[in-house]
Design goal:
globular, alpha+beta, hypothetical protein PF0899 fold
Length: about 80
Amino acid sequence: ELMRAVQGQRKTAGLEPQDKITLTISTNEAGEKAVNDYKEMLTKTVGAPIVTFAEVTEGEELTAGDFQFSFTIAKQ
């Protein structure tokens, strides 16, 4: 779900497939562990060689199962 949401944000931002992004995610400890478990696949799929965890006050919000995420993307 997170990958699909990030891809949607990339499209909305008019990014090309080759454009690299920085992905900033706000979530709880369990959500961070879930992201880290799939981090390699996430970074390759969404073109985000840099994934950071920080407080996101404005961004896309997503609920995936028991996890809550807020995230922003920025073109590198």
